[in-house]
Amino acid sequence: MAKKNKKPGSNVIATNRRARHDYKILETHECGIVLVGTEIKSLREGKASLVDAFATIDEGEVWLRNLHIPEYSHGSWTNHAPRRVRKLLLHRREIDSLLGKVRDGRRTLVPLSLYLKDGKLKVELGLAEGKQDYDKRQDIKRRTEEREVVRELGRRVKGVKG
């Protein structure tokens, strides 16, 4: 029997939709994350929240803060703290590059999604720059114009007038 091709991102556990609204994403990095046993079990149940999560670089290491992974339902005294600080795994040159870009204070590191890849949890980390209110309004306006164009083209293809 032939193997079915899985779509990339089919094992997405959580996404941070608000991040793309509030920030302009300049570049993304895929990184690993250090977890304890009950955290990965809870994540495999599909429970996590990236709301208010962000990453910092301290002493040459990248740390993910405010990621909420609820306690494992079948865990006992070995359960983890839901909002503990977790270490992200990146290559040294990637960390150095990110440190140079974040140092000025205008940019920040925001987790965009959590997903399983080959049985390992990965975090898509975005280098982001904050959007102003007028940038957000322009994005909304652009999306509505694109929707109207697609709707109008659909009418013309079907032969509907006006």
TrEMBL record:
UniProt record, GO biological process: trans-translation; trans-translation-dependent protein tagging
Domain of life: Bacteria
Pfam families for this protein: SmpB
Name under which the protein is recorded: SsrA-binding protein
Locations listed in the record: Cytoplasm
Record gene name: smpB
Keyword tRNA processing: no
Species the sequence originates in: Corynebacterium halotolerans YIM 70093 = DSM 44683
Role, per record: Required for rescue of stalled ribosomes mediated by trans-translation. Binds to transfer-messenger RNA (tmRNA), required for stable association of tmRNA with ribosomes. tmRNA and SmpB together mimic tRNA shape, replacing the anticodon stem-loop with SmpB. tmRNA is encoded by the ssrA gene; the 2 termini fold to resemble tRNA(Ala) and it encodes a 'tag peptide', a short internal open reading frame. During trans-translation Ala-aminoacylated tmRNA acts like a tRNA, entering the A-site of stalled ribosomes, displacing the stalled mRNA.
